[in-house]
Amino acid sequence: MVIGRLRLGALMLLTMLVLAGCESLSTGAFRMPDIFGTSSDENVVKRKIPFPAEEYARLEKHGTAAIQGRLTYTTPQGETLVGADETISVAPATRYAAEAADVALSGRRIEPADPRAREYTHYAKTDSDGYFVVRGIPAGVFYVAGSVLLPGGESRSPIIIRQIEIGDGQTREVDLSR
Q1: Torsion angle of the four alpha carbons 77, 81, 86, 90, in this order, in degrees rounded to the nearest 10
Q2: Contact predicate 44/104, CB 8 Å
Q3: Would you tell me which of 74, 112, 123, 132 could form a disulfide with 22, CB atoms 3.0–4.6 Å apart?
């Protein structure tokens, strides 16, 4: 059951990283979209799973794979919005990330991730047409996530998450749309 949720969440996260033509960023100072939580708001869900240092220690931080895709969101009125100049995140599909993905997919925010988890997360900026590429990904299972700024600039689309599995040297296309 947990593995099924992990796969579903990771599939949703990884769908965001698709086509070339956008800036690729490796791990660093960028904050991951809502999947790991960034709000100090009182409605933030407290984490139940402590950071699993041993699980992360077994993971590679960098590799030879790439994920590419396009970020879009279709409003309830049927308008498709392009995720231009948005940050896409690619995080290893761990039980720690799965908890965050489950909370994000329920429309809530989770408390910020342990900084050690961010060391394993890769980021990319979408271009003006919503396309992105993330390079330097190690082989494994990942969540690809992002969201789109809604018209008016004061709110965001629900988080869009896909889970993917990728091997060394592979390039995977991810449709990050909702």
Answers
A1: 80
A2: no
A3: 132
Domain ranges, residue 141:
2-177
Domain count, the chain: 1
Amino acid in position 158: P
Task: Pull the structure tokens for residue 10.
Answer: 């990771």
**Residues 120 and 27: beta-carbon distance below 8 Å:** yes
Question: Averaged over 92-116, what is the pLDDT?
Answer: 93
Strands (E), the chain: 24-25, 65-74, 80-82, 87-92, 122-125, 131-137, 140-146, 160-166, 171-177
Q: Are 59 and 122 in contact (CB under 8 A)?
A: no
Encode pLDDT of 10-44 as tens digits: 333 333 322 222 333 333 333 344 344 444 456 79
Give the rounded percent of residues in the chain with a pLDDT score beyond 90: 73
Predicted structure pTM score: 0.77
The domain spanning residue 116 has which CATH number?
2.60.40.1120
How many residues would you count in the chain?
178
Residue the block writes with tokens 């290893």: 92
What does the alpha-carbon distance between residue 130 and residue 8 come to, in Å, rounded to a whole number? 23
Bridging pattern class, strands 87-92 and 122-125: antiparallel
Q: Do 133 and 67 meet the contact criterion of CB atoms below 8 Å apart?
A: yes
